[in-house]
Amino acid sequence: MKKLLLFLVFLAFCGFGAFGDTGEQEEIDFLLFFPNSSNQFANQNQAMIQLDNAAEYLMGRDLNPGQIFVFGYAAAAVNDIDSVNLSRDRALFVINELEKRGVARDLFAAPVAYGSVDLWGGNTNEEDRILNRRARILLDGSFLTPAAIQAADSGIKITGTDNTATADVSSFKFPWWIIILLLIIALLAALLFLLSKKKKNSAGKAVREPPPKKVEPIAVPAAPKEKVKVLSEEEIRCYAYGLYERRNGQDGNAEGDWYRSICELTAYYEAQGYRVILYWEAENA
After folding, report:
1. Quick check: 266 and 69 in contact, CB under 8 A?
2. How far apart are CA 224 and CA 236, in angstroms?
3. Cα 199–chain centre separation
4. Contacts of residue 174, Cβ cutoff 8 Å, sequence gap at least 6
5. What pLDDT is stored for residue 95 in this prediction?
6. Quick one: which of 25, 83, 114, 145 has the fewest CB in 10 Å?
7. 108: burial class by Cβ within 10 Å (0-12, 13-18, 19+)?
8. Domain annotation covers residue 77
9. Which domain holds residue 234?
10. Bridge partner list, 253
11. Which one of 167, 189, 205 terminates a domain?
12. What integer pLDDT is reported at residue 51 of this predicted model?
């Protein structure tokens, strides 16, 4: 029976390995920067293509002033560079590059600086740290990725994970029929195994099996509870009003204040180890 289970696990692994790439990893090498640099990308050619695609995508949408947010990030490293200023300069550099490509300046909110993070790597070595030196583009509550751009316009090129090559990635749908086929094969194999075992038992002599040994239960420590923060509408509204007061009551973009409140509150709670859920997501859960 153990051999059968191992065989089924092997079949499932093969199916996911061959057909399970859903594109969620496409953002790993999106707009990565050189160490301690705010104006030079780790892969300049790839980043230029990514910026071209992002600009084309943004200019094809009907946007309001202050609707685009650009976030900057830095890796934790021992040096004299202020990680918050470095991450803000990276976000500002991406804004300037998009503006050069035709995206209007007033569509951008103020750059958001996260400082040093360990969201993509643990900062334990250079291979981990390089993934945290990046910039991200937020639009309507969602971060812009190559997959999102390609979904809007299948003609735009999407860079692959190779540092030197790019390719046109066509839309991919996971072939679920492979999983169904694997399940059918597994059921047939289990049925054949049970029939063969029953036939052998009926042909042989009855053997009294010894009573099963008593197995003491093993205490399993409870998993730590995840810290979840539901960002309420009232909290977002109060924070947005605070932004309005900081401008001494001068008129501004209310919608921009709203999105900026979501971004800055999310960054604050994530820095304290919370997983943030927006109130409308909690209502629909």
Report:
1. no
2. 28
3. 52
4. 19, 20, 22
5. 95
6. 25
7. buried
8. yes
9. 228-284
10. none
11. 167
12. 93
Decide if 113 contacts 74 (C-beta within 8 A).
no
pLDDT of residue 207: 53
Using CB atoms within 10 A of its CB, is residue 222 exposed (0-12), middle (13-18) or buried (19+)?
A: exposed
277, 229 Cβ separation under 8 angstroms: yes
pLDDT recorded at residue 58:
93
Please report, for the domain that includes residue 87, its CATH number.
3.30.1330.60
Give every CB contact of residue 27 below 8 A, 6+ residues apart in sequence.
143, 145, 146, 147
Q: 135-139 and 68-75 as β-strands: parallel, antiparallel, unpaired?
A: antiparallel
**Residue in this structure with the two tokens 């093969």, named with its chain if needed:** 14
Say whether both 153 and 232 belong to one domain.
no
Q: Is residue 25 part of a domain?
A: no
Mention every residue, 6+ apart, whose C-beta is less than 8 A from residue 187. none
Strand, coil or helix: what is 147? Answer: helix
Q: Are residues 140 and 244 in the same domain?
A: no
Task: Tally the residues of the chain.
Answer: 285
Domain boundary among 141, 167, 193: 167
DSSP 63-78: --TT-EEEEEEEE--S
54 and 132 in a single domain? The answer is yes
Q: How many degrees, rounded to 5, is the angle at CA 265 between CA 62 and CA 235?
A: 95
Q: How many domains does the chain have?
A: 2
Low-confidence ranges of the chain (pLDDT < 50): 16-26, 156-172
Distance CA 49, CA 56 (A): 11
Is 256 inside a domain boundary? Answer: yes
Query: What pLDDT digit, counting tens, does each position of 16-34 carry?
Result: 444 444 434 446 678 999 9
First-to-last alpha carbon distance for the chain, in angstroms, is 39
* Predicted local confidence at residue 158, as pLDDT: 44
Please give the distance of CA 138 from its chain centroid, rounded to a whole number.
13
Say how many C-beta atoms besides its own lie within 10 A of residue 119's C-beta: 11
Half-sphere exposure at residue 5, Cβ-oriented, CA atoms within 13 angstroms:
2
